[in-house]
Design goal:
Blueprint: H1 3-17, E1 30-34, H2 36-41, E2 53-57, H3 58-68, H4 73-89, H5 94-99, E3 101-102, E4 114-118, H6 135-149, E5 154-158, H7 162-171, E6 175-177, E7 195-198, E8 209-214, E9 217-223, E10 235-238, E11 244-250, E12 254-259, H8 262-266, H9 278-287, E13 294-298, H10 305-319, E14 325-330, H11 335-338, H12 346-350, H13 355-367, H14 375-381, E15 384-386, E16 400-405, H15 412-419, E17 427-432, H16 448-455, E18 462-466, H17 474-482
Parallel strand pairs: 1-2, 1-5, 2-4, 5-6, 7-10, 13-17, 13-18, 14-15, 14-16, 16-17
Antiparallel strand pairs: 3-4, 8-9, 9-12, 10-11, 11-12
Helix pairs in contact: 3-4, 3-6, 6-7, 9-10, 10-13, 15-16
Length: about 475
């Protein structure tokens, strides 16, 4: 190691080992080392650690640099992260960058930590470090180096790469974590289902009720203690199959419940499709409601998410004329890299990944073939457009019904990008199966689908339905339950 590198290393150690006096508290004795995927997941992630210190290895900057010029959706996130780091370090000298630069203060109660760059290429390799021939290893070695230099500090490597977390633990790093700032729940079993099921008969649990009839709709006003933790557009069921309703409003004392009736839910129809269970009935009610702008459908493979979304979309575009077109898109890990090499138009390039959509269209065509023309006629009549998620950024979508399939593979930031594209008169349907995540860096609790379910549960213009039960076939149902 050269004398210059030793001096830089000592500057970083001195700065992080001896924080300013107003920061000498137990809660501030943490140094976070960020992996590249953290800054791709959230470009401003280095600002999220409040009073704690953050270190970015040089290898991370090089990986961001190699990604920023690729023709991928993630390239934008790399560029944003690089600009954010540059804005923070712009006025700092090289010595200050290595020693640590004060981050913008979060609030008056929590002083901010420091951001430092460490040259992990210049660290001395010892018998206690991994080989330097892989980027992940160099980042882990940087964390091990800081841990050795500052044993009184809690050194934490933050990465979304599960295998890298295992390697770091095996190499001797004491603390390795996932990035959980945008994680809203700790266990997927606590995810909002969009409905609440009462034990026994609903009316047996109601002590007092005021009802109001308006046209064909009946609204019941019951005591709030009867329906705890209610959300707008949350559906209510009971085990006695005698009641089905939806929360339409509440205050400190009362909850307003629109009486839907199980029979009426099961009698709903769209493009020749009828619900096969009460969960599909609730989904169709939300999908056909013009006052709901966002419908989130979760559930296992074969529960009918895509078929119901398409059937209700065709019904509202062709039969009711509520929207001008249907835009169908989905997320897939390979799409960003592979779509440009496929021949044909954007729709033709998307065809291999949208086979599930076209399969559902064929089922709907066979279901209602006598009433409507050929499959191509239906697609033209509904103005169905197949789009890549990559090209949704920057658009403003008006008067359309957007179907976003397989969105369990999207991050919260990616879903925010798509949701904010929806303009006036546009309805968005997000569907996905949290048990089938293909992304290397997402789990059921960190998926963007989980994030929006929890974030939008209080929004009066959205509804979530967990489609409980596989209806595709008895084979699919047995596989879902037993494999």
């Amino acid at each position: 190691m050269t004398k210059e590198n030793m001096n830089n290393e000592n500057m970083l150690s001195e700065k992080l080992a001896h924080p300013p006096k107003n920061q000498e508290t137990e809660s501030q004795q943490i140094v976070y080392i960020l992996d590249t995927n953290i800054l791709l997941h959230e470009p401003f992630a280095f600002l999220s650690f409040k009073e704690h210190d953050v270190v970015v290895p040089m290898t991370v900057l090089e990986e961001l640099d190699s990604i920023k010029d690729r023709r991928k959706d993630v390239s934008r996130d790399a560029r944003v992260a690089i600009r954010a780091l540059e804005d923070t370090l712009r006025d700092a000298s090289p010595e200050q960058v290595l020693a640590g630069v004060k981050l913008p203060q979060n609030d008056d109660l929590h002083p901010s930590g420091c951001l430092a760059i460490i040259n992990d290429y210049a660290l001395e390799q010892t018998a206690h470090t991994l080989s330097f021939n892989e980027n992940d290893n160099r980042i882990i070695n940087a964390a091990l180096h800081i841990q050795k230099k500052m044993p009184h500090k809690k050194i934490v490597l933050v990465t979304k790469d599960i295998n890298m977390r295992l390697k770091a633990k095996g190499a001797g790093l004491a603390h390795v974590e996932d990035y959980r700032t945008d994680q809203l729940i700790d266990d997927i079993q606590f995810l909002t289902k969009g409905y609440h099921q009462f034990e026994g008969d609903f009316w047996q649990q109601i002590q007092s009720v005021d009802s109001e009839v308006e046209g064909r709709n009946t609204t019941h006003y019951v005591d709030k203690e009867t329906v705890p933790l209610s959300y707008i557009n949350e559906y209510l069921l009971d085990e006695g199959d005698s009641f089905a309703g939806k929360v339409t409003g509440f205050d400190d004392e009362k909850v307003a419940i629109l009486d839907l009736g199980r029979e009426r839910l099961l009698a709903k129809t769209a493009w020749g499709i009828h619900p096969k269970n009460v969960y599909q009935g609730m989904a169709m009610d939300a999908l056909l409601d013009p006052n709901i702008d966002l419908v989130i459908l979760t559930g296992p493979a074969g529960c009918g998410k895509t078929l119901l979304a398409l059937a209700t979309a065709l019904e509202q575009v062709i039969e009711r004329g509520l929207y001008d077109k249907i835009i169908v898109t989905r997320s897939t890990p390979e799409i960003a890299e592979s779509i440009g090499f496929l021949p044909g138009t954007e729709e033709e390039k998307m065809a291999p990944w949208l086979a599930a959509i076209t399969d559902s269209l064929e089922v709907l065509h066979q279901q209602d073939e006598s009433m409507h023309g050929s499959l191509n006629y239906i697609m033209d009549k509904a103005n169905i457009q197949f789009k890549s998620v990559n090209f949704m950024r920057g658009r403003s979508i008006q008067n359309a019904l957007v179907l976003l399939d397989e969105c369990q593979n999207l991050t919260a930031a990616q879903l925010k990008t798509i949701i904010t594209r929806c303009g006036e008169g546009t309805k968005l349907v997000c569907s996905g199966n949290l048990a089938q995540i293909d992304s290397n860096y997402l789990t059921a609790v960190t998926s963007g689908l989980t994030y929006i379910v929890e974030r939008f549960k209080d929004f009066p213009g959205s509804a979530t339905i967990n489609l409980n039960g596989v209806v595709r076939s008895r084979l699919a149902s047995f596989a879902e339950e037993n494999l």
